[in-house]
Amino acid sequence: NSSGAICNQLSSNAAVIQDMVGSRLGVICETLSMSAIGVLLGLFYNWQLTIIIFIPFVILLIAFIIQIRLSSWLKSQSDLIYCQASTLAVEVLTNMRTVKQLSMENEVLRQYSNMIDQVLKMSWRPDVLLATIYGLYLMMESLTLGLLYWRALVLVENNELDMSNVVMISAFAMFALESLKVVQMLAQRMGASLAAAHAFFDLFDRIPTIDNGSNKGQELTNFRGETEFDQVKFVYPSRPTVLVLNKLQLSIKSGQRIALVGMFK
């Protein structure tokens, strides 16, 4: 709920969503439709060769969906950590003088560095999996074309298929696989955009825990607003041997204004 976390969400998520809308979204719809049309045309010419294309096509499509979901999860988890880091940075900048007086610069830097390290430690495994999926894309294309040409030669030798149809189906295979590869290159951005859009809806639909406009709850009938300090001691954590307040005894009446004035040591 801090201003730093909210500003970080609004700025980063808006940029990620804007990155995917428009021309890139049109490219995704175009390539998916082109891949589907290529498979349908292949079925029209020869179903045996089209099945060879269709099986890796489905495998790559499943890998594509996994890649989107993995990227979306990684974006949402990293955003949580980045929000905490942004909150810490805003608090430090707002209370810079206090941080300096308490000599907490190294501690704040350590906390911020640990948050950034959490993102790096969390992301290396998904990155390895995403790289493996990309390698699967490259491997499946070569294996599919090799198997397609082998089966086409067998059908041509058995006079079950014309050479012209082989050329057409091979073109459709390249057509479908290359189109799917274009979409795969945008899978990480698609996953990040979905996570950003989900975070936007959660932010706008969130119901606050404390509703300051509600009239429900218990009302205090005998509230006088008096405050009393009884034998209060206070020290700074960085200087535990220096007593700032020692056995403070103070009673503040309702409506009374009290100022504590002293020299900082």
Automatic annotation (TrEMBL):
PROSITE patterns xref list: ABC_TM1F (PS50929)
GO biological process per UniProt: oligopeptide export from mitochondrion
A Pfam family that the UniProt record links to this protein: ABC_membrane
Protein name as it appears in the record: ABC transmembrane type-1 domain-containing protein
Molecular function via GO: ABC-type oligopeptide transporter activity; ATP binding
Alphabetical UniProt keywords: Membrane, Transmembrane, Transmembrane helix
TM annotation in the entry: 25-45, 51-70, 128-151, 163-180
InterPro entries, A to Z: ABC1_TM_dom, ABC1_TM_sf, P-loop_NTPase, Type_1_exporter
Compartment annotation: Membrane
Domain (ABC transmembrane type-1): residue spans on this chain: 1-192
Lineage: Eukaryota, Metazoa, Spiralia, Gnathifera, Rotifera
Gene3D superfamilies per UniProt: ABC transporter type 1, transmembrane domain (1.20.1560.10), P-loop containing nucleotide triphosphate hydrolases (3.40.50.300)
GO (cellular component) term, any one: mitochondrial inner membrane
Membrane topology, from the record: Multi-pass membrane protein
